[in-house]
Amino acid sequence: MDHFIYRDGILHAEDVALPEIAASVGTPFYVYSTATLERHYQVFDEALVGMDHFICYAMKANSNMAVLRIMAAMGAGMDVVSGGEYARAIAAGVPGEHIVFSGVGKTREEMTLALNGGIRQFNVESEPELRVLNEVALGLGKVAPITVRVNPDVDAKTHAKIATGKSDNKFGIPISKARAVYAEAGAMDGIEVVGIDVHIGSQLTDLAPYEAAFKMVAELTEQLREDGHNIRRLDLGGGLGIPYARSNEAPPLPMEYGEVIRNTVGHLGCEIEIEPGRLIAGNSGILVTSVIYRKEGEGRDFLIVDAAMNDLIRPAMYEAHHDIIPVVEAQAGLEPAPHDIVGPICESGDTFAQQRNIPPMDAGDLVAFRSAGAYGAVMSSEYNSRPLIPEVLVNGDQFAVVRARPTYEEMINRDTIPDWMD
After folding, report:
1. Which H or E run includes 354?
2. What is the bridge-based pairing of β-strands 271-274 and 233-235?
3. Which of 37, 42, 83, 250 has its CA 20 to 30 A from that of 417?
4. 360: which residues sit within 8 A by CB, 6+ positions away?
5. Contact 153, 169 (CB under 8 A)
6. Is the confidence at residue 42, as pLDDT, over 70?
């Protein structure tokens, strides 16, 4: 469910007509719906009702400060994967004790930042990381709460670049080695074992991999308790998929996901942590762009738009699908026709869709890319010296720019010229 709907033939974000935003900020731009963000958090909260649980928003999906403030106001913690994300979470008003630090390459500096600022737990991904964290904690006179991320060698049946739970992925410790690693952690004075972490991938559309992984975590929990560890928290990651193509069968609902959790680990008496990102942010945002040209090619037609792969890289990077729709509904009788929808960057990879049926459109017409709220703006760049595009937040009939488009001068002035070149 989202709050991007047609009213009188014009696509709205909640109660704001998208052409109104385009006239104010120019195109391209991202726009996020407050109501959708709040609703998607609520459905996860409802899915886990009756279980002790804590939802940590995976802010790598969308780390705009306004989005983080919305999540914090809903009661969410944050799942961070860098010192920068940790600093953003703190700046958004999230207490350190509500922040989980994930990622395979945590540095001493990042560990120090989190230990000094407060942390719910580190999700430790390797033995070397565990030993460094112990050293850092002891040096600060602190104790670091940890889970160990176990790799269950479960095929998440998702895109290879976002699968994280197979033995050939870089993530986690093989579950077969977990008891030995926990024994080492339990003997460290700078470490407090609080639970187990598992995360098998992103954009999952099948619950069977979750069930397989969670059953393995349940068995490991019993084993570690027998070994004397106080396992009281299970971090089950995130990764539940969203329907990028509205014509396809929808992925499982959070309520069904919650039932898998309840049936596999609900009997253990542990606090359940989950880290949704894509499902909260994905359908809460769209990318709005303008047609620059309609070009007739040899055997195919092109719509050249003013958004490009630097603004939304998912199609180029993951061969990802986004539904693409006109902001103003086509007049009756105008039949959709296949077009390649492309950006202006001088690479063939700057293609959003090939032979996609779309109503006839002309220069200046607005086009919306659905399901662009996650891994859109956060993965954008200034490739080709194209300024980062604005992010806009809508709340009912109000909208505000929550990240402005830099000017060419602002973009250029971030570079510095060495003195010897003057």
Report:
1. strand 351-358
2. parallel
3. 83
4. 330, 334, 337
5. no
6. yes
Of 218, 206, 345, 371, the C-alpha closest to 286 is: 371
Task: Spot the catalytic one: 1, 332, 346, 421.
Answer: 346
Determine which of 25-39, 241-255, 311-325, 406-420 has the lowest per-residue pLDDT on average. Answer: 241-255
Query: In Å, how far are 246, 314, 327 from 199, measured between CA atoms?
Result: 26, 21, 37
What is the residue whose two structure tokens read 């991904």? 125
Nearest 5 degrees, angle CA 184-CA 269-CA 151? 45
Inter-axis angle of helices 83-91 and 65-74, nearest 10: 60
The whole-angstrom separation of Cα 351 and Cα 343 is: 6
Look at residue 244 and tell me whether its pLDDT is greater than 90.
Answer: no
Distance of CA 309 to the CA centre of its chain: 18
Q: Is 346 a catalytic residue?
A: yes
pLDDT of amino acid 162? 43
Cβ atoms of 341 and 390 closer than 8 Å: no
How many CB atoms are closer than 10 A to CB 336? 12
pTM of the model as a whole: 0.93
Q: In order of start, what are the domains of the chain with their CATH numbers?
A: 4-31+282-412 (2.40.37.10), 103-274 (3.20.20.10)
Q: What is the DSSP letter of 328?
A: B
